[in-house]
Amino acid sequence: MAFITLNRQELKENFNHLQKLFDNKNIEWAVVAKLLCGNELFLKELLNLNPKQICDSRASNLKTIKKLNPDVETVYIKPPPKRSISKIVTYADISFNTELETIKMLSKEANRQNKTHQIVIMVELGELREGVLREDLIMFYESVFQLPNIKIIGLGTNLTCMYGVLPNSDKLRQLSLYKELIEMKFNRKIQYISGGASVTIPLILDNTIPKTINHFRIGETLFLGTNAYENTRYPNMNQNVFKLYAEVIELTEKPMMPEGELGLNMNGEKTTLNPEWVGSTNYRAIIDLGLLDIDLEHITPVDSGMSLVGASSDMIVIDLADNPKKIKVGDLIPFQMDYMGILRIMNSEYVEKRVE
């Protein structure tokens, strides 16, 4: 059975590194834990680091987090679906919002549960995903802050996730400007300006982030040690918090050139063959992992001498060349993954989860 490991020490080192970075800039931050897909084993490791806030985009995952630690502050980080309002008020202390009718429902449900539900209003700054249009923000805020059992604690924005619009100081200054306008017009303080995610960390490092940006939501850099702005690695952070292992279930020296008339494979694609393959052989390993668990573009063998040949729903074929490491059936092959690869693997019930 294939399995994914979380390295406890490497996660702790990455967390402490980020905590020091944000403390030095007087910035609060929340861990975005949606990568863990609500896995209790891994969530316990994360909670042992004592984060102040944990964000997720699934109410069921927030329920698990509250079960493990009722005191940690939970944040629902996408506009709430109307059919999940009760669960969100129950398990999320804070939610990110863009729709007035949804917030009215949150207000009604919070009143029913005898709670004050906190919200962050997301502002559209060009990514064209979630966000209130800038020209509508003042009126939107005025409509919301009068609602009972609702407390607006922040303004936020999301960049990069859909079109790849990069954050810069000009965009974040716009967010800061709206904070000042609202505070002046309504004589109310806004606690958080949540303009930061992993992709915004480089603006801290080069001192170009506006001082009013005082809240970040971090997932990728914590778990992968990567610079999401430049798609590179931070040299002082760990990139192997997660590692995937799959067992070799067949290993045979086979011809490189397929034999027979070629049609479309299971993905509807026609394979392009290299004439140089004629008459050549290599060692091919089949592992107990497939497209049901992960896409090939999100997984890389740790051994650079191995390459992925192809995959079906539950098997992946690996080219071992002349098998210099003398791999045999039953051996484990380790892999590295990118963010989307880990997310897919964590969501597969067929891949075991282990802590190192």
UniProtKB/TrEMBL annotation:
Occurrences of domain Alanine racemase N-terminal (ranges): 7-224
GO cellular component, one term: cytosol
Keywords annotated in UniProt: Isomerase, Pyridoxal phosphate
GO molecular function terms noted in the UniProt entry: alanine racemase activity; pyridoxal phosphate binding
Gene3D superfamilies according to UniProt: Alanine racemase
Cofactor(s) the protein needs: pyridoxal 5'-phosphate
Pfam families: Ala_racemase_N
Top-rank taxon, per record: Bacteria
UniProt cross-references to PANTHER family, sorted A to Z: ALANINE RACEMASE (PTHR30511), LYSINE RACEMASE (PTHR30511:SF3)
Descriptive protein name: Predicted amino acid racemase
